């Protein structure tokens, strides 16, 4: 209830701000759309809660909504900060540069909102198909107005001759990246020399890219006479590798909680999904080329991640790359086996390096570090050529402690030897969204008795792609399809788990009714009356004779039966005796039967 009340306060604050919506000079329609969707989402949830919950149930039924509502509160607060930035008139030029081509409204805030709403509806056992359709229609209208953007490269004097332009410090170990102060705001600047004209297509392409999980170039300045180029970008706190190293410390603590790690994995996968949809392949994806910064509000360790160092050559005007990155890690540990094999044979891995599946392999290694805090192979004694040979031979990092199988399975599929067996980033994003849903619906995931998914999400993805082959294409799908995708996942999960339960039930009932003789020899626990008489010599003799008869395989003639007719075997396995036992006393499975994994009808009842 407290989270829902706080969400209402933020919605009220946004409504008050929108009194001045005509004064919004940057991204006005995006802000109005975002407020409208947040308001509609709040009303929908309120209506469903009113219909399905009672106030006196707040200590029981409401509990399951706490974690999803907390997530929704965080998303709406981040949206409020975005709208306030667009409304604020101070430093107008800075905001125009930062936000003129910004897609955060749709690709970040509305994406997160649409991911969260179905989770809340499922958690409260509610459904609002009409509302989802209205939200999707609104979003599609907004997406349809987006078109191609024409970029211009401005003269460098526009930047360097500005009165408040100031270089503050170098970023990283190289000389290309600097932090600058310009128009009263801090930016990251990439400054390099060389023949600029051949780079115009690459620079123009990067200027056209816009996604919340890739580094976006706000503007570019060139001086063709001096052969130099300036690219102004968002300033991030640090790279992911340095951040993990600082958090883990000498004690090698786990860097992130499971929800935060999965959120980072999803952000990186979304950035790569966007790049691949533009036919841009990274080729050097590793934690040093992922920049992070803390969110604007206190979000329990959640970070904003952006993929960088793609597209435009990262070594323009610089000597050839060294054998290790800026954090002293060998790049070989991030490269796929086929890349290393190509490098071994030809000395040049560019043909295999810039592929979709090579990037997926690198992503799998990043997932390993996010989940464990350990650099892949850091405990190994092999380096250089030996490390390369072992990776090509199939060696992979070992998870140092127990982690949920649904995460380790996904990671292992990403670093599979066969590139064709690795999932696409579109599939990875769908799986991670559903894992995120599972974690939100089971907030006590750190407890030993935590429930686990009944099916493997990678298997669900394989089944779904047969029904929706267009989802396997490299073209990125609009985020308005996310609620439907999560609904399809939920249907497939329930169907697959029902099939598994039926198979287990049928095999268990078959084993209990007509199982092998070894299963029927084990006696159930005796009743109290049997327990008292079991020590008598007569009882012992009867049991010995009974077991001897059941073990004898020779046919026994029934007195008075025709010659040659065989007497049927005892009915202890599937006849009257078992029914009498089940009715007269509690049937308890023996250890030998339990080990088989089958479940009998008596256990299910």
TrEMBL record:
<dbReference type="InterPro" id="IPR010632">
    <property type="entry name" value="DUF1221"/>
</dbReference>
<dbReference type="GO" id="GO:0005737">
    <property type="term" value="C:cytoplasm"/>
</dbReference>
<dbReference type="Pfam" id="PF06760">
    <property type="entry name" value="DUF1221"/>
</dbReference>
<feature type="domain" description="Protein kinase">
    <location>
        <begin position="165"/>
        <end position="439"/>
    </location>
</feature>
<dbReference type="Pfam" id="PF07714">
    <property type="entry name" value="PK_Tyr_Ser-Thr"/>
</dbReference>
<dbReference type="GO" id="GO:0004672">
    <property type="term" value="F:protein kinase activity"/>
</dbReference>
<dbReference type="GO" id="GO:0005524">
    <property type="term" value="F:ATP binding"/>
</dbReference>
<protein>
    <recommendedName>
        <fullName>Protein kinase domain-containing protein</fullName>
    </recommendedName>
</protein>
<feature type="compositionally biased region" description="Polar residues">
    <location>
        <begin position="498"/>
        <end position="510"/>
    </location>
</feature>
<dbReference type="InterPro" id="IPR001245">
    <property type="entry name" value="Ser-Thr/Tyr_kinase_cat_dom"/>
</dbReference>
<dbReference type="InterPro" id="IPR000719">
    <property type="entry name" value="Prot_kinase_dom"/>
</dbReference>
<dbReference type="InterPro" id="IPR011009">
    <property type="entry name" value="Kinase-like_dom_sf"/>
</dbReference>
<feature type="region of interest" description="Disordered">
    <location>
        <begin position="496"/>
        <end position="605"/>
    </location>
</feature>
<dbReference type="InterPro" id="IPR050167">
    <property type="entry name" value="Ser_Thr_protein_kinase"/>
</dbReference>
<dbReference type="GO" id="GO:0007165">
    <property type="term" value="P:signal transduction"/>
</dbReference>
